[in-house]
């Protein structure tokens, strides 16, 4: 299976994920989604169901960690192009 460099839901670099990926229902590691987005074969925050909601969520989290708003916004511009949101 192809290794993705970025989570295909939130865009976070997979090498920044402490668990190196979420988990599938069978317990295997997901190579598409990070552990913050995906556990046990399901998305962790079902209320985040659009790319726009994910962008807002990510910007808020990055701002809480001290990142300038403009930089956080730049990082989230790719989200609508990720696998989860293309469908």
Q: Could you explain how this protein is built, in words?
A:
The protein has 3 helices and 2 strands. It is mainly alpha-helical and about 90 residues long. The chain has 2 domains: about 1-45, no CATH class; about 45-80. It has a two-stranded antiparallel sheet with strand order 1-2. The two termini are about 20 Å apart.
Instruction: Please trace the helix and strand order, writing H or E for each element.
Output: EEHHH
The value of Rg in angstroms is 13 Å
Average pLDDT figure: 95
The description of the largest β-sheet is: 2 strands, antiparallel
What would you call the quaternary organization?
single chain
Beta content: under 5%
Task: Identify the notable features of this structure and list them briefly.
87 residues, mainly alpha, 2 domains, two-stranded antiparallel ribbon, 3 helices, 2 strands, globular
Short description:
Helices cover 30% and strands 5% of the residues. By secondary structure, it is mainly alpha-helical.
Task: Outline the fold blueprint.
Elements: E1 38-39, E2 42-43, H1 51-64, H2 69-76, H3 83-86
Antiparallel strand pairs: 1-2
């Amino acid at each position: 299976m192809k290794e993705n460099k970025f989570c295909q839901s939130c865009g976070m670099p997979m090498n920044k994920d402490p668990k190196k990926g979420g988990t599938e229902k069978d317990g295997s590691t997901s190579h598409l989604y990070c552990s913050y987005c995906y556990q046990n074969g399901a998305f962790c925050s079902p209320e985040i169901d659009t790319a726009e909601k994910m962008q807002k969520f990510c910007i808020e989290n990055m701002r809480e960690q001290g990142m300038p708003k403009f930089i956080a916004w730049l990082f989230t511009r790719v989200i609508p192009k990720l696998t989860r949101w293309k469908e």
